[in-house]
Amino acid sequence: MSKVSTPAGIGNRERPDEPKAYAASKEEMLEFYRQMLLIRRFEEKAGQLYGLGLIGGFCHLYIGQEAVAVGLQSALTVGRDSVVTGYRDHGHMLAYGIDPNVIMAELTGRAAGISKGKGGSMHMFSVEHGFYGGHGIVGAQVSIGAGLGFKHKYAEDGGLALVYFGDGAANQGQVYESFNMAELWKLPVIFVIENNQYAMGTSVNRASAEDQLYRRGESFRIPGIQVDGMDVLAVRGAAEEAKAWVQAGKGPILLELKTYRYRGHSMSDPAKYRSREEVQSVRDKSDPIDHLAKLLEGEGVSADELKALDKDIRKIVADSAAFAEESPEPDLSELYTNVLVDTY
Ligand SMILES: Cc1ncc(C[n+]2csc(CCOP(=O)(O)OP(=O)(O)O)c2C)c(N)n1
Ligand SMILES: [Mg+2]
Questions:
Q1: 21: how many CB neighbours lie within 10 A of its CB?
Q2: For site-directed labelling of 278, which of 35, 195, 220, 335 has its Cα 20 to 30 A away?
Q3: Which residues of 209-221 are buried (b: 16+ CB within 10 A; e: fewer)?
Q4: Which residue has the least CA distance to atom 6 on ligand 1?
């Protein structure tokens, strides 16, 4: 069940409809399944490579949240619409059709990586795809996203900006400056709060006075919708509603996706702030991939077919790790290139 915010201040402002679950064909459902499983297997492999010391710096895994990126980005047009997110960014790149090889090569700091091996996990870009990062400063991507929305409106290119941030980032000041400008100028921006319940070790209820985060746009007259972020069809349904809203020139909209991360905040998280039972219970009851597998079974897809798909995906991921390990590190002569746009 989704909830739509009815801000008192909005008065007679038009409200978005309560989104319906997306009526996907069997083929579309299989594609969502494939994409979610690719993200899961890719992240598992990244976790292993980190353990082996092949990935340096930070590494934030997306396991558990797959339905969010896949449900939302499957509604967008790569190259026309822009996406920007924080540091937990590998899944969003995969969901935008970016080659797993160049993502894994970036994670392992290789020259063939999408940021030439100089960005790592948190700083991946593909301007060609309209993927604008990959940002380590909590909340900073929200202002960048408002800017991307401005660009789409100014250029009249028909695109929109999809701007992801976390429940913790939702308490950052610049988020609200961005909300204000986006609504004032009616920018085509879908603000997306990925509420995975925790900001590092702090639960959303401990840190947020208003923990119904879909209501956070109310004082800016931005309508909000709360969505089950573990159900890819519910997410895609909300994406359709949000897309129609911003494309009709009604300004920005806010989606709160209720989700959960199974792994620690980053690879170096002692995980003392929640119990194993809590994590296990979400995995058992609400896993987005298992949920879709059940729906696919109902469509006549056999367990063997799903297993075969998993095998193909494991190969893609293993190949990406092999590609990364075989690629050279950046040449020393690259140390000062791509640091500034120009020479000063
Ligand atoms: C401005 C700023 N403050 C603090 C940090 C340290 N920090 C990194 S991630 C994080 C938690 C953010 O949590 P949330 O927004 O819920 O995103 P999630 O990690 O759950 O995806 C914090 C406090 C930072 N990177 N930038
Ligand atoms: Mg969070």
A1: 15
A2: 35
A3: eebebbbbbbebb
A4: 138
Can you tell me the distance from the alpha carbon of 46 to that of 60, in angstroms, rounded to the nearest whole number?
10
Tens of pLDDT, residues 275-313? 999 999 999 999 999 999 999 999 999 999 999 999 999
Beta carbon of 204 within 6 Å of any ligand 1 atom = no
| Ligand 2 center–CA 247 separation, angstroms | 28
CA-nearest residue for atom 5, ligand 1, is 138
Higher pLDDT, 335 or 75: 75
132: which residues sit within 8 A by CB, 6+ positions away? 82, 83, 84, 125, 141, 144, 145, 148
Is residue 256 predicted with pLDDT exceeding 50?
yes
Spatial neighbors of 70 by CB under 8 A, at least 6 apart, are 32, 35, 36, 39, 95, 232, 235
Provide the whole-model pTM. Answer: 0.96
> Which ligand is nearest to the Cα of residue 61, counting in written order?
1
Instruction: List, in sequence order, every residue forming a beta bridge with 164; answer none if it has no partner.
Output: 192
Q: Domains in the chain, ordered, with CATH?
A: 3-8+20-327 (3.40.50.970)
3-state secondary structure of 122: coil
Protein residue whose Cα sits closest to atom 2 of ligand 1: 138
Tell me the pLDDT tens digit for each residue of 93-112.
Answer: 999 999 999 999 999 999 99
Query: Strands 189-195, 161-166: parallel, antiparallel or unpaired by DSSP?
Result: parallel
Ligand nearest to the CA of 87: 1
168 lines ligand 1 (CB under 6 A): yes
Residue 200 CB–ligand 1 contact under 6 Å: yes
Q: Does the structure show a pLDDT above 70 at 153? A: yes
